[in-house]
Specification:
This protein has helices at 7-20, 43-50, 54-61, 70-79, 84-93, 110-118, 138-143, 157-163, 165-168, 174-191, 196-208, 210-216, 264-274; strands spanning 124-127, 133-136, 226-233, 237-246, 255-261. The chain is α+β, with helices and mostly antiparallel strands. The radius of gyration is 21 Å and the shape is elongated.
């Protein structure tokens, strides 16, 4: 049976990797590289920066059952110079952030389905926190694939990017797309530690995809709400999209992804694609 998040082990590993990536010179600490057998800050340096004991840091990094308070989590986040996404991830692992009630949606609310259609001609889709695609409009299907022809387990944007032979080649900077997707998925994994389907999905990717396993092991955490994607479409040609991700107030675990052309050439490409 696939395990969900072992928060103590993941908290330990995350703290170690964040500590090891830091440069002592950025903190005004003496380098003495010949005496540093591992990269980054020492445990005692993190302990001093966070205002806790060295033994406390050791026990955290050895997953010995500690549950840091919100104040300690905040101090650790500051000491390790975590960005907002990493900070939220640390709070989730320490069970210090309120959980979202209920299970992940598997069917989109009718009002959201209508909204997705109403946003045409912009390519739009609705996903849950697992990246399962719950609703899409015609323009989104034209851009990627007719999701309705896929078995439900394959209607997942991470699965498509990793496994679908045509979509794998559609992103010019595919590794960046996969890396950002994994960073978001890791944040969702910590925020939903009891979601067994999500844990099983991650286990499937980790065991069956070398690229996913390599990037997942880096423990990057980032929730990216907007950005650009460069694509090469077999019919429309090259195009650049700007995307914006919105979460409905009543369904905060669902993500509305709205795509727009980034320039005139890309808009012309979309127009040609949707006029077929």
């Amino acid at each position: 049976m696939t395990r969900t998040v072992d928060t103590a082990q993941e908290l330990a590993a995350f703290l170690r990797t964040r500590r090891e990536r830091l440069d002592p010179q950025d903190f005004g600490l003496p380098v003495r590289r010949q005496s540093r057998r591992t990269p980054g800050l020492r445990r005692e340096e993190v302990a001093e920066l966070a205002g806790v004991s060295i033994d406390y840091i050791v026990r955290l990094e050895q997953a010995r059952g500690l549950r840091p308070s919100a104040d300690v989590v905040e101090a650790l986040a500051g000491a390790l110079r975590l960005d907002p996404g990493e900070r939220a991830y640390l709070f989730d692992l320490a069970a210090q952030r309120p959980r979202t009630a209920g299970k992940a949606a598997t069917v989109a609310a009718p009002s959201l389905v209508r909204l997705v259609d109403d946003l045409s001609p912009l390519p739009v889709m609705l996903m849950n926190h697992r990246y399962d695609i719950l609703a899409w409009n015609r323009e989104m299907a034209n851009l990627l694939v007719d999701f309705g022809t896929l078995p439900p387990p394959q209607r997942n944007s991470m699965w498509l990017c990793l496994r679908h032979p045509q979509i794998r080649e559609r992103y010019v900077d595919r590794e960046l797309v996969v890396r950002e997707g994994i960073a978001h998925l890791r944040a969702a994994w910590a925020a939903h530690p009891d979601d067994r389907l999500l844990a099983e999905l991650i286990a499937e990717f980790t065991s069956g995809d070398e690229e996913f396993a390599r990037l997942w092991a880096e423990r990057d955490v980032k929730v990216t709400g907007r950005g650009r994607k460069v694509m090469r479409h077999p019919e429309a040609g090259p195009l650049v999209l700007q995307y914006e991700t919105l979460a409905p107030l009543e369904d905060p675990d669902q993500l509305l992804v709205i795509n727009r052309a980034a320039d005139e050439e890309s808009q012309s490409a979309l127009d040609r694609l949707n006029a077929r």
